[in-house]
Amino acid sequence: MSLVEFLDFLWENETVLWLLSAFSLISFLASIVLIPFLVIRIPVDYFVEEYCHLTPWACQHPVIRWIVLVVKNFLGVVFIIFGLALLLLPGQGLLTIFIGILCLNFPGKKRLERWLIQRSSVRLAVGWLRQRAGRQPLRFQNKRDGR
């Protein structure tokens, strides 16, 4: 399907156009509310090399831990999908993808998180949101002096 055919399809199907518009509006509003909420809750020392994050449900029954793990990973995938959509629609796409990755569990996650947060656009946006919320800026380990 070419771009012209796709645009013709959209204009001929008003319902699809309204659904896409509603999705764009909902995702925009959700990103305005959820992203700052999640970003200000990242622990200050989360990106420090020695930081060992103990989840609140670590001491719960194994069934509860698995349910939480599955739900958390599902939400991570949803955030990444919305983040990719928000790269084309109005909203905070990079931050949404970053939050989605924070929710997922996979090998090499910590290294990827550090690499992503080092991107100037993500780091500036996260710092700005945390400053507006009255939270301390995130700390990072300096490779030269170990801080």
Question: What does this protein look like?
Answer:
This protein is an all-alpha fold and 147 residues long. It has one domain (3-132). The protein is globular. The chain has six helices and no strands. The longest helix has 26 residues, at 14-39. The mean pLDDT is 79. This is PGPGW domain-containing protein. The chain crosses the membrane at residues 16-42, 63-85, 91-108. InterPro entries: Uncharacterised_PGPGW_TM. It comes from Methylomarinum roseum.
Q: What's the shape?
A: globular
Domains (count): 1
Beta-strand proportion? under 5%
Percent helix among the residues?
Answer: 55-70%
The number of distinct helices, counting runs of at least 4 residues, comes to 6
The description of the largest β-sheet is:
none
Low-confidence stretches: none
Class inferred from helices and paired strands: mainly alpha
* Rg for CA atoms: 19 Å
Give helix and strand order, one letter per element, not per position: HHHHHH
Tell me the span between the first and last alpha carbons.
Answer: 54 Å
Q: Can you tag this structure with a few keywords?
A:
single chain; 147 residues; mainly alpha; 6 helices; globular
Task: State the gist of this model.
The chain is mostly helical.
Helix and strand arrangement:
Blueprint: H1 3-12, H2 14-39, H3 62-86, H4 93-103, H5 109-117, H6 120-132
